[in-house]
Amino acid sequence: MTFDIAAIRSSFPALGDGYAYLDGAAGTQTPISVIDAISSAYRLGIGNVGGPFPASARSMAIVAEARQAVADLTGGQPAGVVLGPNSTTLVYRFAHALAEGWREGDEIVLSRLDHDANVRPWVQAAARAGVVVRWAEVDVDTGELPVEQYDDLLTDRTRLVAVTAASNILGTRPDVAAITAKAHAAGALTFVDGVHSTPHDLPDVRAFGADFFVTSAYKWAGPHIGALVADPALLESLPAEKLTPSPDRVPERFETGTSPFADLAGVTAAIEHLAGLALPLPSLPRRERLRVSMEAVGAHEQELFDVLLGGLGGLPDVTLYGKPARRTAIAYFRVAGHTPAEVAEHLAMNGVNVWHGHSYAWELTGVLGLRDTGGAVRAGLAHYNDREDVDRFLAAVAELPKAAG
Fold first, then answer.
1. 300 belongs to a structural domain
2. What is the C-alpha to C-alpha distance for residues 399 and 391, in angstroms, rounded to an integer?
3. Per the domain annotation, does 82 fall within a domain?
4. DSSP bridge pairs for 329
5. Residues pairing with 213 in the sheet
6. CATH assignment at residue 380
7. Do 24 and 42 share a domain, yes or no?
8. What is the CATH number of the domain that holds 195?
9. How far apart are the first and last CA of the chain?
10. What is the DSSP letter of 144?
């Protein structure tokens, strides 16, 4: 199998502006196949679901295809795929639903490693229900989330364990399967945030031991759509606040309002894009094509990341945060003598897009002692980045004026 980075890059119109897009952790660019799928849905005509006319049938087919595609991507079941505007909204929706079954004195376990979208909804739901929040802590030096601490955190009152599959600033990939196994042994449900991990490593909700798993298409070359994946039987057990006439069946009862049908066509196209990154691919089921392609993505990103990380590590004024054993291709760093905002502005002037600040890793940047002083700079790789992007980034960082010393 080959990974043709030139061909892949040519399918992304936005990359033609000459910038190095190292900001993919906040949202990736979109290939022409996704753009065409969205525009085609509008051109052909779409209508609300349930009508006796072709435009309505097209919308119903789009929704069904999107559920199947997300199930293929995550290893879930189409009937357990809940679609929504973004993962944060879906976490809030399910925090509210799950909290209906909590009682005062119950406990939940959260992680300081997580994006705030898998923290604050639970903290707020726990406060309303009188539930105790317990915290899994991060090793500040390594950026790891030690599994052993869960033995002390879990009790017979634990109702939920929420954990990320990868940190969105350090890239840390904790041992999710081991954590969820401990949670299940204690009788708790598990909620896994796969928003940052999915673009870099093909998810498997069963292998993760995830009762609930969330991901966002705009992190893997799709439109701004989120998806939650769970066992349909588990979804059946949960209440949903909904309009009286809207469907009561699963998963639709958790999807409020009319769906963005054209964008859902883009979700399917984005997953097909991911499934076709390693060529030539034999005629295989989409899940298998995704597995082969994402292995190629991982190898490509790791090769580039070795250069990026080694280059940053060789610059005397650069401080890198976290050194987890298993990580995604993302670096979080500061440059002595410059604020993170100044570094990001300098890089933008040199044709490199990066983010700076806390990146919504609110708890983690607090633990690292960075949150209140501007956070740090975040540079991450997506499957469409190439060596030229990395070289331009490293050259621009090296050109920053040296700290006075």
1. yes
2. 12
3. yes
4. none
5. 192, 229
6. 3.90.1150.10
7. no
8. 3.40.640.10
9. 50
10. -
- Whether the CB-CB separation of 150 and 175 falls below 8 Å is answered with no
Nearest to 93 by CA among 191, 25, 169, 174: 191
Residue 283: predicted pLDDT: 84
Q: Which amino acid is at 121?
A: P
Are 252 and 347 members of one domain? no
Q: How far apart are CA 172 and CA 235, in angstroms?
A: 29
3-state SS, 84-127, equals: ECCHHHHHHHHHHHHHCCCCCCCEEEEECCCCHHHCHHHHHHHH
Domain that includes residue 100, residue range: 34-273
- The tokens for 40 are 């085609």
In a domain, 384, yes or no: yes
* Residues 208 and 133 reside in one and the same domain: yes
Tell me the C-alpha distance between 30 and 284, whole Å. 25
pLDDT at 123: 98
Q: Give the confidence band of 143 by pLDDT, cuts at 50, 70, 90.
A: very high
Tokens linked to 149: 């601490």
Residue whose C-alpha is closest to residue 118's, from 187, 190, 46: 190
Q: What's the total number of domains in the chain?
A: 2
How much is the mean pLDDT over the chain? 97
Contact at 8 Å (CB) between 85 and 117? Answer: no
